[in-house]
Amino acid sequence: MSVIVQKYGGTSVAGPDRLRVVARRVAGARAAGADLVVVVSAMGQTTDDLLTLAHQVSARPSRRELDMLLTAGERVAMSLLAMALHDLGVEAISFTGSQSGILTDGAHSAARILEVKPDRIRAELARGRVVIVAGFQGVDPKTKEITTLGRGGSDTTAVAVAAALAPATCEIYTDVSGVFTADPRIVPDARGIDELGYSSCSVLAHLGGRVLHGRCVDLAARHRVPIVVRSSFDERPGTRIVEDPAMEGTRVLAVTHRGDCAIALAEGNPGGRGEARGVIEAVAEAVPGLELVAHEQEAGGHTAVVWVGSPADAATLEAEFRTLRGPGGEWKIAVEQGAAFVSVVGLGLGAPEVVRAEAALERARVPLVALRATPVALIFRVAAQHAEQAVRAVHGAFFPGEREGQAAGVSS
Questions:
Q1: Is the domain of 118 the same as that of 211?
Q2: The pLDDT of residue 211
Q3: Is 374 labelled as part of a ligand binding site?
Q4: How far is CA 106 from the centre of its chain?
Q5: Contact status, residue 117 vs residue 157, Cβ threshold 8 Å
Q6: What angle do CA 168, 18, 133 make, to 5 degrees?
Q7: Which residues belong to any copy of the Aspartate/glutamate/uridylate kinase domain (predicted)?
Q8: Any binding-site annotation on 175?
Q9: N or C: which end of the chain has fewer CB within 10 A?
Q10: Are 22 and 145 contained in the same domain?
C-alpha cells in the first residue's frame, strides 16, 4: 500500500465536532487503501492558552518546563482523535513524538529533528492500524529530555515522518484551501496557486507566508517529499508542492508579508576575537524566535548585528542584552518597533518588477522605508500601519483583474 501522512492543524481539530469530521476524513482515506499516519496539532488555541497560563504562574518560565507543558496539547488531540476513529470502527493508536522515534537536538522550544526512527509506526501500520502522531515534539536521545520544535513544528513533524517512511506523500490540512497569491483575508480576490516549486514555496514561507513553515518546506525539498496543502473544511484539490520547474524568464508567483515586526540593532567594538560570534550564539540560545538578518564587521573592528522578530522577543533581547553579551567589548543595542515587510516572490525578478511595485506603493500613498532585491524576492520595508494597504496595492499591480480559475503567476 502507499503511505500517506496527513497533518491537521489546530483549527481543524478545534473541538469535538471538528475531531469527528477529521476522523471521518481519515476513515475515508483508510478505506480507500492507504497506509495512514496522522500528525495532529493541539486543539484550537490550546498552545496559546498554556503559554498564557505559564506566564501567569511564572515571570520567566523555564524553557525545559515550557516544553513539558506545551507538549500536553498535542497529546490531548491525538488521544481524542484515536477515540473518534475507534467509534467509526477504525483501528488506531496514538504516539507521542518520542514514542514515534522523533529524535532532536537539545534546544528547548526550538529543537531541530536529527533523525526519525519509525520502527513502532511501521509495526502498527503492518497491523492495519492508523497511527496518530503528536506533532511539534520529539526527544533528545542523549538526555532523554522532551523537546518542542518551535513555530510550524507539526508541519515539520509530518514531513520528517513522511521522509522516514519514503516513498510517502504528505498532505497538510489547514483552514485555507491551499497557497494563495496573497493572504485572502487582506486581498479578497487573491487566487489559489495550483502548483509551486519547493524553492519558491520556501521563499514564500520564510518571508511571511502562513500556510506552511519554511523549515517544513526545506525538509521536504531535501528529501523530495511531495506535499499537498488542502483545507480540512472543503474538498478542493489545494496546492501541490513539487520539484522546481526547469524554466527561464520572469514570473511573479505571490505577494506575502510580515506585519508588526521589531528590528534590533546591536553595535559595538568587540573586546576579543570571536566575541561578535559569541553574541550571536547567545541570542540564538536565549531568544530563538529572533531571526538573524545581518552581521557586518568593518576593518577597524566596529561590528553591527541585526535581528528581526516579534515585538516581545525584541523587547526581551533589549532587556537582557547586557547579560547575553558577556563582559567583553563596548556594545549598545537599539530596538525599532512597528516595522513590516511586504515581499514579491517569484523567478527572475529585477528592475522592471521593482519599478512596478514601487509605483503601486506610491499610488497607494504608502511610504517606502527600504528595499532589498534578489532574483527570487523583492522585500519592501514599510511601517506596520501601512502593511495591509501595501499588500493590496502590490498584489493589484501584478495580478490585475485576474479571472476566476486562471493559473496563478504573471509574466512580466
A1: yes
A2: 84
A3: no
A4: 20
A5: no
A6: 35
A7: 3-231
A8: yes
A9: N
A10: yes
Of the residues 279, 311, 334, which one is the last residue of a structural domain? 334
Tell me whether residue 104 is in a domain: yes
Give the cell for residue 26: 481519515
The CATH number of residue 315's host domain is 3.30.70
191 and 48 housed in the same domain: yes
Asked if the structure places residue 256 within a domain, the reply is: no
- Asked if 205 and 170 sit in the same domain, the reply is yes
Say how far apart CA 306 and CA 341 lie, in whole Å.
15
Tell me: do 26 and 165 sit in the same domain: yes
| Structural domain boundaries enclosing 327 | 268-334
Copy the grid coordinates of residue 235: 474538498
Beta bridge pairs of residue 195: 240
Q: Is 316 annotated as a binding residue?
A: no
Report the b/e string of 398-412 with b at 16+ CB within 10 A.
bbeebeeeeebbbee
Distance separating alpha carbons of residues 333 and 317, to the nearest angstrom: 9
Dist. CA 4–CA 162, nearest whole Å: 8
8 in a labelled binding site: yes
Q: What's the domain count of the chain?
A: 2
- Model confidence over 244-273: pLDDT tens digits? 766 556 789 999 999 989 999 998 876 655
Task: Say whether 273 counts as a known binding-site residue.
Answer: no
Mean pLDDT of the chain: 90
Is the preceding peptide bond at 167 cis, omega within 30 degrees of 0?
yes
pTM (2 decimals)?
0.86
> For residue 343, is it within any domain?
no
In a domain? residue 193: yes
Flag whether 7 is marked binding: yes
Least confidently predicted of 40-54, 145-159, 198-212, 357-371: 198-212
Query: Please, are residues 45 and 13 in contact by the beta-carbon 8 Å criterion?
Result: no
For the sheet containing 146-148, what is the strand order?
A: 113-116, 102-104, 137-139, 146-148
From the list 250, 257, 254, 278, the residue with the least C-alpha distance to 266 is 278
Q: Determine contact, residues 335/314, Cβ cutoff 8 Å.
A: yes
Same domain, 66 and 100: yes
CATH of the domain at 209: 3.40.1160.10
Is 198 within any annotated ligand binding site?
no
Q: Which strands, in side-by-side order, build the sheet including 3-8?
A: 92-95, 130-134, 35-40, 3-8, 168-174, 227-231, 239-242, 195-197
